[in-house]
Amino acid sequence: MNLEKVVFGFFVLLAATLNFGFFIGDLGDPEMHSIYELFAAVVVNLVATVLKFGDRTQIGAVHLATSLVASLQLIAAAIVWTYAANVLSDGVLSAEQTATVVSLSGGALFANVVSVTLLVVETVSFHRR
Fold first, then answer.
1. Taking the chain, what is the end-to-end CA distance rounded to the nearest angstrom?
2. Residue ranges covered by each domain of the chain
3. What is the pLDDT along the chain (129 residues), one digit of tens a residue?
4. How would you write the chain as a 3-class SS string?
5. Nearest Cα to 17, choosing from 60, 70, 65, 64?
6. Using CA atoms, how far apart are residues 33 and 5, in angstroms rounded to an integer?
7. Residue 93, Cα to own-chain centre: how many angstroms?
């Protein structure tokens, strides 16, 4: 068993599941979406991105691209949440602001799903030598 592949797969799947956990729920209800879960999704996605930098294969480049997209969208969601909660209001997000944050998270979730799909395809097509 390759420990590097285990750690890589762990962070790719954890990034997707954390993002899914944040994304699921009523689009405009801020009570359904935890800021801490968004923060965890951002951090784990950034770790997954760093882990993808060493791979020089074509599929590694696509893994990195999907991870960069997910991280960028989650960082944008965190910035929107922070700005909306601390600058525009008294700490409570409106339904419209929450929908914007959750929609950005949805884009990141799609990138995470592509990354997990690539990981599964890569694993299934692996030939032992």
1. 13
2. 10-22+33-124
3. 788 889 989 999 999 999 999 999 888 888 899 999 999 999 999 999 998 887 788 888 999 999 999 999 999 999 999 999 888 877 788 889 999 999 999 999 999 999 999 999 988 887 665
4. CCHHHHHHHHHHHHHHHHHHHHHCCCCCCHHHCCHHHHHHHHHHHHHHHHHCCCCCCHHHHHHHHHHHHHHHHHHHHHHHHHHHHHHHCCCCCCHHHHHHHHHHHHHHHHHHHHHHHHHHHHHHCCCCC
5. 70
6. 31
7. 21
Per this entry, what is the length of the chain? Answer: 129
Q: Which two tokens stand for residue 93?
A: 């997000």
Say which amino acid occupies 73. Q
